Amino acid sequence: MSAIQKLLLAAALMAVVATAQAGVAPDTMIQNTVDEVLSVVKQDKELQAGNREKLLALVDAKVLPHFDFQRMTQLSVGKYWRKASDVQKQALVKEFRAMLVRTYTKAFTGYRDQLISVKPAKMAAGDTEVTIRTTITKPGAPAISVNYELEKSGDSWQVFDLSIEGAGLVQTYRSTFAKEIEDNGIDGLIKSLAGKNVNDGNEKAAAK
């Protein structure tokens, strides 16, 4: 499995932590949602076949409300974030969010018979950030370790990063984004992301 494929799989699996239930420990919340989300995908042939509308609806319901997209974008843009204007920051978050939606909808169709084990959280009372470690296994394939970084927001938890086999999603994007900004500026990165998001949407529509 290539690094890109692993990140796509990891991005899809970010959905399992999306239903942030108030007062529930983060590891318990992940395990409960793993069971719920994978059950839905495995039983729905249209989701497995890549039905875009259904996939977007699932992502919208289970993922988007519970991710700190601004923090994820800020971490991915890195040192250039403070140089961006408020308008540019809003545009970056919008396009970053759209990019992750594209990633999720593509990766969801790969679910079949994966098993996910969630390790107990190691955290002290009062901690507001925690790493949740999971292992993904599939018959005939090596086990994959995925670590989720969550932060507490009120009584619930939000994802702001993940790593798979030691490769962080935010760090991976940071390297790509930095190169784009150095070559074409912040507006160049926004334009590049927007173009990819639009082109992907057009390809999906043409494929129907």
Structural features:
alpha+beta; 208 residues; 7 helices; 5-stranded antiparallel β-sheet; Nuclear Transport Factor 2, Chain: A
Q: Look at the helices and sheets and give the structural class.
A: alpha+beta
Report the CATH topology name: Nuclear Transport Factor 2, Chain: A
User: What Rg is obtained from the alpha carbons, in whole angstroms?
Assistant: 17 Å
Estimate the helix proportion, in percent: 40-55%
Estimated share of beta-strand residues: 15-25%
Q: What's the end-to-end separation, in Å? A: 28 Å
Succession of helices and strands? HHHHHHEEEEEH
Shape: globular
Number of helices: 7
Within CATH, the superfamily carries the name Tgt2/MlaC
The CATH architecture category equals Roll
Top-tier CATH class:
Alpha Beta
Roughly what is the average pLDDT, rounded to an integer? 79
Q: Residue ranges: pLDDT <50 for 5 or more in a row? A: none
What's the structural domain tally? Answer: 1
Strand order across the biggest sheet?
1-2-3-4-5
Record field, number of beta strands = 5
Largest sheet: number of strands, sense, barrel closure: 5 strands, antiparallel
Written account of the structure:
The chain has helices at residues 3-13, 26-43, 45-48, 52-62, 69-77, 86-107, 169-207; strands at 115-118, 129-138, 141-153, 156-164, 167-168. It is of the alpha+beta class. It has one domain (3-203): Tgt2/MlaC (Nuclear Transport Factor 2, Chain: A). The protein has a 5-stranded antiparallel beta sheet with strand order 1-2-3-4-5.
